[in-house]
Amino acid sequence: MAPLNKSIIQILLGILVVTAMLPFGKAIKLIPLKVTVQIINNLTQPQDLTLHGKDKHHDLGEHTLKSREMYEFTFRPNFFYKATLYFCGFAWSSDPSLHRFDIYDERRDYCAKCSWKISETSACNYDVTIHERSASSSMNSSHAFTITTGASELTTEKNIK
């Protein structure tokens, strides 16, 4: 068999194997869609919310939101496997604690636009497409927010000086 014919057969076999592994009728996502995460200051007392967000490779910096203001960032999730994780620390003047929360976890969040309302006692995932709360977490006495779906926590730590 000529080398060119052998190469063509190998390419066709590769395409056949990849096609057989795809779910029937599903499109291939070669490039992940962009995800936008919104963080809204929903503190009940009109006060500033300071947040510092990052993932393993990117530091989003510190941002201060006035009452009802929003901060958002956009990124593409991990191309090879579902491992994208962004986390934030939150603080406000009436609470000396540092509150930490996984603001985007690719294994938990299936949204192209994830909107989180942060208050003194909860972090609520607000579905902007249907204008209602889709997941919520509430503060308990052990200083942790627990998502009602059981998927994630917003933890609180006392500032150490």
From TrEMBL:
<keyword id="KW-0732">Signal</keyword>
<dbReference type="InterPro" id="IPR010264">
    <property type="entry name" value="Self-incomp_S1"/>
</dbReference>
<dbReference type="GO" id="GO:0005576">
    <property type="term" value="C:extracellular region"/>
</dbReference>
<keyword id="KW-0713">Self-incompatibility</keyword>
<comment type="similarity">
    <text>Belongs to the plant self-incompatibility (S1) protein family.</text>
</comment>
<protein>
    <recommendedName>
        <fullName>S-protein homolog</fullName>
    </recommendedName>
</protein>
<dbReference type="GO" id="GO:0060320">
    <property type="term" value="P:rejection of self pollen"/>
</dbReference>
<keyword id="KW-0964">Secreted</keyword>
<dbReference type="Pfam" id="PF05938">
    <property type="entry name" value="Self-incomp_S1"/>
</dbReference>
